[in-house]
Amino acid sequence: MHGNTLCSDGADHQRLRRVIAKPLTPIALDPLKSEIVAKAKQLVDRLVEKGEFCAVAELGTALPVDIVASAMGLPQEGWERMLVWAERMFNCFGPLNDRTRGASRVLREMMHYATTQAVRGKLKPGSRAEAIIDAVDRGEIDEAARPAFLIDYVGPGLDTTIWAIGSGVSLFAKNPDQWRKVRETPSLIPSATNEILRLESPVQGFSRLLTRDYDMDDITLPAGSRAIAFYGAANRDERKYHNPDTFDIKRNSAGPARFRLWAAYLRGSPLGEARNGCHFSRLGGAVEQFHILEEVRANNVLRGFGKLIVSVE
Asked: Which fold would CATH assign to domain 10-312?
């Protein structure tokens, strides 16, 4: 993953991040919001009519691929594999277990797509993906980094959003008093989204390799070692949050560490928050209560559910 934002630091990271962040500002994403709202309404109405559904496979995954791939201007060939690619990418960060071993082949497939399909002539003219190619032509990023930049857009925009939606449904099912507050006061949805991300941070932690000795709190972290930032722990720090293990949608938890500490993920947060907000806004008008029938967690790095079957009233 040569030269992408995830694998860079300092001034180099800031330079690369400026390139990738341009198309993902809230203003730039405004034209997508009406499309997200319309599709979220159609999706939620269909699932509520069923009465029972998987909050991950049927609710969480339905919009992200369509919205992200369409917004990026990617060729439709390969869209059906994007969810698999995103999950396997995160599995590679975990311990060397069967999930990690099974991810390598799939990631090679993802890189092949980025190299052969996400190219000029196959991309939507004027799209976000084509903007990356334009940045290569201007010399702002290396050609070798182009495929990784495209993956920078796709991976974080999919699984983190999907798993946050599933975690939100789970939390509201287990805390019906908080769901009543959302239904009574829809303006609380942005605050509720932040609280979901705080309590059930989709990305629990990430490590960095120290290139030099670093002193912190009278402890020297030696060069060549790895330091791990645990975002899930930071988001439950009792020094910052009163009763940190309590789900409280009125809590002032804006800017959770999941976004704040891992700067690379800031580029996807406005789009993810828009999708999450539309889902819960429409659900609030149609669902009085969620009931969990089955829940299964599954990923090396991401916190969330591989399966979350719920019924609704």
From this structure: Cytochrome p450 (1.10.630)
For residue 294, CA distances in Å to 49, 162, 212, 298, 306 come to 19, 17, 47, 13, 11
Q: Give tens-digit pLDDT for 214-250.
A: 998 899 999 999 888 888 888 898 988 889 999 999 9
* Phi-psi label, residue 157: left if phi above 0, alpha if psi -120 to 50, beta otherwise: alpha
Q: Could you tell me the residue ranges of all domains in the chain?
A: 10-312
Q: Give the C-alpha separation, 90 to 101, whole Å.
A: 12
The amino acid at 132: I
Q: How does residue 296 score in pLDDT terms, banded at 50, 70 and 90?
A: very high
Q: Which helix (H) or strand (E) holds 41?
A: helix 26-50
The predicted model scores a pTM of: 0.77
CA distance 277 to 271: 10
